[in-house]
Amino acid sequence: MKKRVLFYCQSLLGIGHFIRSRELLYALRDFEVCFLYGGEFVPGFDLPDWVEVVYLPAIKSDASFQRLYAVNSSDSLPEIQARRKDAALEAFGRFAPDVLLIELFPFGRKKFNFELLPLLAHARDARPEVKIVCSLRDILVRRPDQARYEAEVCAVMNQYFDLLLVHADPRLQRLEETFGSVDRLNCAVRYTGYVAQPSHDKPKPRVETDPLIVVSIGGGRVGHELIVCALDAETRLSAPHRLHILTGPHMPDEQFESLRRRVEGLSHVILQRHTTQFLTCLRQADLSISMAGYNTCMDILSSGVRALVWPFNEHENDEQTRRARKLEGLGCVSMLDPARLEPDYLAAEIVRCLSLPPPSPSFALDLQGAPRTAELLAALLAGKISDQ
């Protein structure tokens, strides 16, 4: 009998949490899996056919992560929250998991206490033997009330969780760099390596000789100004080139339509909302221009493409800046100055990067986070992982 994993994920602004969780789902093929997803639907991205998917009534947030909104529903937020809590509890009772895997919480998603705290309490009461695991990315956002935040996280982790999986390579990024209370966690902590798409296939030979520049902004709710600047910058390039722009599936329609009108008739420019073959696009490219989200950076590393990254840093969010600086120091990317996003500067950086050889990092990062997550869950269920 296969062991059962109930996996909860909630995206709010972008699609990064969903994409990373999707890679983990593909790695969990030796388990029976039920995936609870509470974010806005991401079109075009299939999920493994062996995974049962339960879509909770979708909720998203504003760009400052201050307010929650219902997606495609006329019901009030309290009504949707009640339905979500009931659906999560029903899924747990029906699926009877051996592992409850929760993405990010309690290190984030505090606004979802309304459903996650009841789920955790019910899991411990109804199935005391269930293993409860947190799936956590490499870098956490610093908080104004950091001490209180860390104390609250430790309290929830120590009450409910058996294992914390940190999806990072500790040679580059350790959890204590952005969460100083790691030694106050009573559960086991394991680094999995970074979660990245596999890149086993060889890139197809290119017919075109002009350099290909891929411009992307993740989910699309933020980063529109990077695409506009790239379009302004490319008019300043003297050498022939091609531009492939990916706006993200959640870019507002009016912004996308404005971009579509702007590139209409430009034969060297392709404009798409998104592609499920982003890694393939990067492997065909001569240069990537993007923000510095977790998944985009992992695709940059997997593809080996030259890369200019412009970290999202609004609302004192320094996660992407930290990642970009670490990867720049390793020799994987070049970081754009967030305060200098203007066409002449970007055009000069494009010319500079295209003249460089492909990246040659000082050491190869561990990108086996997805298969190692599956291995660590199996080890936990086999009793081979003890606290600390």
Mean pLDDT: 93
Helix coverage percent of residues?
A: 25-40%
Here the CATH topology of the largest domain equals Rossmann fold
Sheet with most strands: strand arrangement: 3-2-1-6-7-8-9
Structural features, described:
- It contains 11 helices and 15 strands.
- By secondary structure, it is an alpha/beta fold.
- It has 2 domains: 207 residues, Rossmann fold (3-Layer(aba) Sandwich), CATH 3.40.50; 143 residues, Glycogen Phosphorylase B (Rossmann fold, 3-Layer(aba) Sandwich).
- A 7-stranded parallel beta sheet has the order 3-2-1-6-7-8-9, sandwiched between helices. It has a 6-stranded parallel beta sheet with strand order 12-11-10-13-14-15, with helices on both faces. Strands 4-5 form a two-stranded antiparallel sheet.
